[in-house]
Records
---
Amino acid sequence: MYNLAIIQARMGASRLPGKVFKNLAGKPVLWHVIHRVSKSKWINEVVVATTIQKADLEIIKFCAEQGIRVFAGSEEDVLDRYYQVAKLFNPDNVIRITADCPLHDADVIDCVIAKHISENNDYTSNTIKETFPDGLDCEVIKFSVLEKTWQEAKLFSEREHVTQYIINNNFLKKGCVFNSVDRGVERWTLDTEKDYKFIQKIYDELYMENPEFNSSHIYALLDKKPELRKINGDIVRNEGLLKSIVNDHVV
């Protein structure tokens, strides 16, 4: 069983350009995402999927220096970018990760992959019902399903957001991993300066003592210092997806 993690990353984020190279504990956000995802026991290889835009040459250079495989593809058709990477490896499953999640937890990723394989699902995530903090999102897709999606998805929202067509397809077998405690209102992702300030605080509190800190350590910290949640607690979850759906069109 060959499992390929694809981390989508680009410099041109509309609300926080260059966020993948924001500094956290002396290293860029992208380094932390790659490192945390690579700790998964189920993932065989990690590859970064960026775009052909000139600004993203910096991501390609960084990955080359770190010995991480990197692919450059379409900026807006992220589904095509994923498929073109995946078909080079021909994996059994593709794990979708976004580069704006420097608090990822390999144990959470492994729970999603394990459920996907044990149930022989077409698609498995921890986001069909959002009980994990925004920033621990993990989606696992059979490569054959990703290929079919690439062939059939027509709406802009389905091309920009890789799994939207799959989520809306009632004929596929889907599974969801639920958190033991519903933490779906918490925001651990990096999309704004407020998010960056919040994540910086988490790293300042935890990284020096334990660079391998995980979600359980963050939960304990936030329960001890609930005021940290207020830093970015007013931001709407999945705002980018909602915007794409409102402005949807056939491509």
---
Amino acid sequence: MSFEWPHLLWLQAALPLLVLLYLWILKRRRRSTVRLASVQVARLAMGKGPGWRRHVPPLLMLAALAALLLAVARPTATITLPLAERTIMLAMDVSGSMRAEDVKPNRLVASQEAAKAFVKALPREVRVGVVSFAGTAAVVQAPTTSRDDVIAAIDRFQLQRGTATGSGIILSLATLFPDHGIEIQHVTGQRNFPGKPIGKDSRDDKPRFTPVLPGSYASAAIIMLTDGQRTTGPDPLDAAKMAAERGVRVYTVGMGTTSGEIIGFEGWSMRVRLDEETLKNISVLTHGEYFYAGTAEDLKKVYESLSSRMVVERKETEITAIFAGLGALLAVLAAGLSLWWFGRVA
């Protein structure tokens, strides 16, 4: 915990003085002489009747003052808060190797089922968009709060040749930031216009955004799942740098073999290898995280873990109201107990 106005913490030095003042008042009362009609009344006057209860209200009031004085210094702390607005882009590999059956029933179906369960578990206010990528990338569902539309889009996946992981990231960014002028013709397979570099405005050739700290954009995130290494399209690390400049975290999920094996299905075979190093570097550059899923159950657990962290954020927040509320509560409790036990506040 830190404080916006730490110099005001010196006010806490008044608390020991108040304790000394309270002890001095008690001692003075014991020394005072009062003519009373009975010994019992005399004992009450000397403070021996109520016993320990007489000290409870003052102690509560002292704690209330301590909390209020901390509130004056404006304390801050890093706490977990729910996000008021969130958009999640699912970038999913639909290359031919996703037919492989090393993940049951096969990689594509396992990824679809895990993604659909993930979408259903998200709060209704979270918007979800879907990008599929193989040799090129396509937005199969624009960000929406309709879970039925997202699930239907995931069910419509069509397998293609090639693996362009960088295209999946770039198209996801272009969907999140339509006003940034991100050039997408070369990642969607459409005709590209020469002389327009990635990330530049298509009209004046100037960046239309100000780079921010990696991982600082809390309103959106990209989850990318792939089972192979890039075979075409832009460099995924260049795409990751674009995401980092916009503060967007990219969470990468790898499935399949990491050693490089020949996988056969439907009478033909192909060699595939998961490029874990690149996926880890993408997550590092964007302050995201990398997950490996070797089975359908692993993949389900990965998405369950992601669903819990996609809707909250940890941030430095002023918690003055907590201390102020605590101080007020203790003060009211001290006054209430004093009235109940002794019939007076003081």
---
Amino acid sequence: MIEEIINRNAIDELAAVIDSKTQFVILSHKNPDGDALGSSLALCLYLRARGKKATVVLPNRFPDFLSWLPAAGDVLLYEKEQEKVAEVMAAAEAFFCLDFNTLSRIGELGDYVKLSSAPKVLVDHHLQPSDEFRILVSHPEACSTSELVYRVIVAISGDELLSNEMAQCIYTGMMTDTGSFAYASARKDIYLIIAALLSTGIDKDLIYRKVFYNSSFSRMKLFGYVMYKKLKHYNKYNAALITLSYEELQRFYAQKGDTEGLVNQPLQIKGVRFSCFLREEQPGKINVSLRSVDDFPCNSVAEEFFNGGGHKNASGGELHCSMESAVELFKSALQKYKDNLLG
């Protein structure tokens, strides 16, 4: 029996919105990952199964290795189709905001949502949701937003409307947001949900291969280069650092998603508890990815040093500075959190 974690009042409010509205827009954060896309597509497919008009709108492109997901070809990207997105946003009778806790995470799309009088529903597993939403389904204890979308679907409609396509999207989101169930996945409910997803006929092994065994030759060369040339081991801090400059990314023809998973690799080194990946998306703009094991608080480091946040073992941030300055911040973080890293 799966424990009910979502408040019944929230489910009833959410169900009332779905029943009373026809046109929905589903939004997720910039640089969408497997959970952002998987949860959004699963909810979109569910709403369509209910006879509703639903559109997923994202700020920018998702990684190519997720393009096989059901209905991924229907996603509207604001960076490419601003006029069409504006029309869809204006026609929306309700917004579902998935896998982010504040409207600033969706960039300019947040302005459309703020100006609209349509109900705004948050479904998310990050800490400290803002007060910009009418209905909150916010549960940081969930392994992913995809888990919460599964719970919402079943709470409203039971298992009857849970299709194979929805299950593929939900499983992908849960798998990618837990490092293939290597972290944030100790609760037994997760595996009861997986069993329910498997009952729809999904092939979890095939999903794994589609996500992780789908690299380009240039991506494999990039990984090799990083492991040999760019990985630094800070042994006395039980930490590791990867840096990639804009020039290096261009040299290896890096595409969207090509660096996905790199930050996890140093955690395979014996004793390493904290891994940091600094990626220069464009000159002077550094994307920060942080991962940890055990009880080391990535989110605290992200908030204090990298203008970010997230989960205890998986967080991120953004810097507007040189790579050299970003590395110095990382070193300062190591010194500040030395006792936690060695404890």
